[in-house]
UniProtKB/TrEMBL annotation:
<feature type="transmembrane region" description="Helical">
    <location>
        <begin position="84"/>
        <end position="112"/>
    </location>
</feature>
<protein>
    <submittedName>
        <fullName>Uncharacterized protein</fullName>
    </submittedName>
</protein>
<dbReference type="InterPro" id="IPR021776">
    <property type="entry name" value="ActD"/>
</dbReference>
<keyword id="KW-1133">Transmembrane helix</keyword>
<dbReference type="GO" id="GO:0005886">
    <property type="term" value="C:plasma membrane"/>
</dbReference>
<keyword id="KW-1003">Cell membrane</keyword>
<keyword id="KW-0812">Transmembrane</keyword>
<feature type="transmembrane region" description="Helical">
    <location>
        <begin position="272"/>
        <end position="293"/>
    </location>
</feature>
<keyword id="KW-0472">Membrane</keyword>
<feature type="transmembrane region" description="Helical">
    <location>
        <begin position="424"/>
        <end position="445"/>
    </location>
</feature>
<comment type="similarity">
    <text>Belongs to the NrfD family.</text>
</comment>
<feature type="transmembrane region" description="Helical">
    <location>
        <begin position="354"/>
        <end position="373"/>
    </location>
</feature>
<feature type="transmembrane region" description="Helical">
    <location>
        <begin position="124"/>
        <end position="144"/>
    </location>
</feature>
<dbReference type="Pfam" id="PF03916">
    <property type="entry name" value="NrfD"/>
</dbReference>
<feature type="transmembrane region" description="Helical">
    <location>
        <begin position="588"/>
        <end position="612"/>
    </location>
</feature>
<feature type="transmembrane region" description="Helical">
    <location>
        <begin position="175"/>
        <end position="199"/>
    </location>
</feature>
<feature type="transmembrane region" description="Helical">
    <location>
        <begin position="531"/>
        <end position="555"/>
    </location>
</feature>
Length: 670
């Protein structure tokens, strides 16, 4: 295994250099990364892919069939009965939404903590989030019974001028899940922009090139664009991190704020967040281990180091989940509440006790095998454990939701819950839908982050041999000159050339690279990106919008003509009276206000990057240079001095670029 030498601590501290496993093996080059990742999309689908798509597609077909059946027949075809009115439908919603939380949270948190090994797993994790949320949305949508009345949850007044109750947990879920899905899609798509540009520059089919060009907003690979892009990526990751924690807390609070034994506990919010990371990493391993086995070239980018790190995360989060289980048992005993005590005793000794032991065995005991290096490094041991962990997490939700509801406060209302074939059909159909969507994703977009993986390559491997002779070229007679371009063999040469170009006094020039090069902003003296300022303004606008909405629909106001005489009160639109609670209840409005703040901030970050980068670009003159157009998103490093610069001279500028070590110097027409 190739290894990179990294020194721990400051230079000159005297500590020995530690040999750490490389995150990209076999000394691969940037062009190889492009070929390996893009080939999954570009080459014909293998036979195994067709078999898997057909199998999971047929399984996913159970979803529309079951949905049509129980809508046409009635909700009674489910196993719901008193006292279990929340059955497998809500259980599966929580199961999928927790997996969905993990993907974006993993990508964002690992980005903030500068964990470079995330670059090989973040794209699959973000895609997994979107597909899991889609599967989760199926269950509450049809659990409401009258699906055609779903629009009552949308925050618009209906014909009787009755607005939705923004103090209700059901509407919290509507805002939380809707915002989470929207922002997760935006975060995933934002990260895809440079990789879609790589597909654009590689394809030879005109319709694909135009489609990819539209999807990547005319990405050029300019260092100035990378400057704003990185700032926007961090801002969106920041709001996504807050969003994931808030959504998991809202979903868990739906349970914790009730008085049902087994639910009324303050440990639910952190427990749900930990469980989300736990089940999410298990699902990522479930997806990536077969992926690297099916495409052997990806093994150099999804390395044993990545598997080892994910196994360690599973060990840590599994231990935290076990701590939560033990705390629940302790509090049930120590709290001296007979209902709580019986609920947990029933989980362990009741008719559904196998779910509790499966939950504890798969989620707490099984991850302890990852204390051993062999279990962490063996892909299929890790994969098998990950599958069983997700089975255990499903049993955890069954134990929390179903088993807690089966034994009500009154023994006369006790009844054992039995799911019907409709319940199981919808669940297994959602499993098929999840894997079916992921298989389609593999054939449409890069499953690994191309640009980010290139930043993991060692500097000696990034240098590319270039011809020593310059390319004498001139535009056709009558064509206008855009500028003069030169190619450099490495990012270090490009950084030095950029610094010298700035010192020379050139104003209108830019550099182009296939990935962000740290230090270029200092070499080019780029001012701090203003993306964060616009994100702050967008978030404040969302907060003000939310406050205006909940205030206008909740607080009554005096009539202008009658207030001085009668003092009668009437709502701005409709004053919602909920069990005598205050009209304006700030704690109850926090979920709605927070989700709107995050939603506005995320979209503002995206739009700020687009506008500050002067995107979209239907056309750019640098694409007239074929070498730059082909390789600016692959493995090329370019510097272009524009003809409008006051210091530009075809002869002197050429000599200057040559003195910097530039090769393939080309005159670019407009």
């Amino acid at each position: 295994m190739a290894a990179v030498k990294e020194t721990v601590g400051r230079e000159g501290s005297g500590r020995a250099a530690l040999a750490r496993p490389a995150l990209v093996l076999n000394e691969r080059e940037a062009s190889w990364v492009n070929d390996a990742v893009c080939s999954v999309v570009e080459q014909p689908a293998p036979f195994w892919w067709w078999l898997a798509v057909i199998a999971f597609g047929l399984l996913a077909g159970a979803v529309p069939l079951v949905v049509v059946y129980f809508i046409s027949t009635g909700l009674g075809v489910w196993g719901l009965q008193s006292p279990v009115f929340w059955g497998i439908a809500i259980l599966n919603f929580v199961f999928w939404i927790e997996i969905g939380h993990a993907g974006t949270l993993i990508s964002a948190i690992l980005l903030f903590t500068r964990q470079r090994w995330r670059n090989s797993v973040n794209r699959a994790a973000e895609a997994m989030t979107i597909f899991a949320v889609l599967c989760a949305a199926v269950f509450p949508l049809f659990h409401i019974g009258r699906q055609w009345m779903f629009w009552y949850m949308v925050p618009v007044p209906e014909s009787y001028a009755v607005w939705q109750n923004f103090r209700g947990p059901l509407l919290w879920d509507e805002f939380a899940v809707g915002t989470y899905f929207t922002v997760s899609c935006l975060f995933w798509y934002f990260g895809l922009l440079p990789d879609i540009a790589s597909l654009r520059d590689r394809t030879t089919k005109l319709w694909k090139k135009r489609l990819y060009h539209v999807l990547c907003w005319g990405w050029t690979g300019s260092v100035r664009v990378w400057h704003h892009y990185e700032a926007g990526y961090l801002c969106i990751a920041g709001v996504v991190s807050v969003l994931v924690i808030s959504v998991a807390s809202v979903v868990s609070t739906d349970f914790a704020t009730t008085l049902v034994p087994g639910w009324h506990t303050t440990i639910f919010p952190p427990d749900f967040i930990t469980g989300a990371i736990f089940s999410g990493f298990a699902m990522i391993v479930t997806l990536l281990v077969p992926l690297r086995a099916a495409y052997p070239r990806l093994k150099d980018m999804i390395t044993p180091k990545h598997l080892d790190n994910m196994a360690k995360v599973l060990l840590a989060t599994g231990s935290l989940v076990g701590y939560s289980y033990l705390i629940e048992l302790f509090m049930a005993w120590y709290g001296a509440n007979p209902f709580e005590r019986y609920t947990f005793l029933n989980r362990i000794t009741g008719p559904d006790r196998f779910t509790y032991f499966a939950m504890f065995g798969f989620n707490v005991i099984l991850p302890q095998i990852f204390w051993f290096r062999r279990c962490r490094s063996h892909p299929w041991i890790l994969w098998t454990a990950s599958v069983l962990i997700n089975v255990g997490m499903w049993f955890e939700r069954y134990s929390i939701i179903v088993v807690s509801l089966e034994r009500d406060f009154l023994p006369s209302s006790w009844r054992h819950y039995l799911p019907t074939w409709v319940d199981w059909g919808l669940f297994f159909g959602s499993v098929g839908l999840f894997f079916f969507l992921f298989l389609l994703f593999l054939r449409v977009l890069p499953a690994l982050s191309i640009a980010e993986i290139k930043t993991l390559l060692g500097k000696p491997e990034r240098k590319r041999h270039l011809e020593t002779a310059t390319k004498e070229s001139a535009p056709n007679p009558g064509e206008q000159i855009y500028g003069l371009g030169a190619e450099f063999s490495s990012e270090e040469e490009l950084r030095q050339a950029s610094e010298e170009t700035r010192k020379k006094g050139y104003v209108w020039w830019d550099a182009y690279a296939p990935y962000p090069i740290h230090g270029m902003e200092r070499a080019m003296q780029l001012s701090k990106s203003r993306v964060s300022f616009f994100v702050l303004m967008g978030g404040l606008l969302g907060l003000v919008t939310g406050i205006a909405m909940v205030t206008a629909t909740s607080i009554p106001r005096p009539q202008f003509l009658e207030s001085f005489t009668t003092g009668q009160l009437q709502g701005l639109f409709y004053a919602t009276v909920v069990q005598g609670k205050p009209y304006f209840s700030l704690p109850a409005f926090v979920p709605v206000l927070l989700e709107l703040t995050i939603l506005f901030a995320a979209f503002t970050a995206f739009l700020a990057v687009v506008l500050l980068s002067r995107l979209p670009r239907p056309y750019h003159p640098v694409w007239n240079w074929g070498e730059l157009a082909r390789r600016a998103t692959n493995d090329g490093f370019f510097l272009v001095i524009e003809a409008r610069d006051p210091l530009f001279s075809p002869t002197e500028s050429r000599q200057f670029l040559e003195s910097l070590g530039g090769r393939q110097i080309t005159m670019i027409s407009r």
